[in-house]
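Q: Entry one of two.
A:
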Amino acid sequence: MSLINSYSQSLPQASSSATNTSAVTKSSVQSTTTTTGNSFLDSIRLPEESETPEANDEMLNQEDFFALLSQQLSMQDPFEPVDNDQMIAQMASFSTVDGISNLNDEILNLNTVMSSSQALQASGLVGRKVLVPSDTGSISAESPSINGVISTPSAMDTITVSVEDQSGQVIKSFSVDGSAGGNVDVSWDGLDKNGAPVEEGLYSIKASGKVDGEAQELAVSTYAHVSSVSLGTTATGAILNLRGVGGIKLTDVLAVSET
């Protein structure tokens, strides 16, 4: 009887142990999963988001440097401590590198601001004519003539001017007075040697004169109409788009004309 009673008394204990295990399991499940009691809402509930650790910055900053320096000082050999001059030199070197990096960032920001400001100023040239260091000008219905400037090293009686087309053929030749010396204005009305208007396109103005008794080619600059402005890059700056000619840097403009 004692055996039967002992066996029968052990059953509730096993059941109690199983019940406790089940309770622990349910408790752990409930602690990890939150339910609302509504089967529909539980089925569409979004899964809990897992936190993603932020990426560590691999670059050493000033705080990292001082942390390493503190470790170096705390673990140094007491019989051979770090020289003060060496420690100051390390701190000065790091501060110099950090300062140069910040200076580079500020220069890049300044270049961006200057490029935007330059483009804004150049936009005021749209619709006007600028003098560019090129002897090639454009003939079109909007600009039936080409004006320019001949640069002379000294005064000369006569300057011979010839107009050439893109193939190098001479369209017209004429002379201008160069007795004033310096920069001499030149203008071509867009007519050939027979007095007929030329076709639209690009034409070059060549000039020559005698310097100390010898014939010499003279530099010619022409006016062009500014049709638009491009921002360009930090290296080039603002770009002026000239009608029929192409783009030119703002810094290459020699003069601005009212018309």
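Q: Entry two of two.
A:
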Amino acid sequence: MYQNAAYAYRDANVLTANPLKLVLMCYDGAITSLKLAREAYIRKDYESKAKALQKALDIIHELDASLDMGRGGEISKNLRGLYLFMTQSLIEADTKRDLKTMERIIGLLQELQSAWLTISLSGEAKPEDKQDDAKARPAGIPLSVLKPASAARTWSA
């Protein structure tokens, strides 16, 4: 019963969140999932590792799918390249049992999360900004690299 309430609360947060908050939630989920995958690998719990790694890959895919390539310009292209690199690196790291690569991808995700968090805290990412490219954003990431919230998909635990 409590678990159903927790899922309903999480779903309500996802469905009502602005695009910036969704991005931050995705980064948090991907980082957490990769850390869980790493820990499961160390414990030799390969089933849990596979599930956590797949969840991280799914989230990275959703981050990529949320990019608005028409409005986001060069930044969207660069983010797409990073997401592709992360996906390929994680798959290769899994087959080679390379925990160092997994750590590097966690670090990349944390750096990107930090940039998006800076945007969130700057006060410039208000809904009334209407994702205006003309406003400079911290860390050089304009909010317009994201599709409108109605076009964004969600991921589940």
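A: Comment on entry two: Residues 69-96 form the longest helix (28 residues). Confidence is low (pLDDT under 50) at residues 125-140, 150-157.
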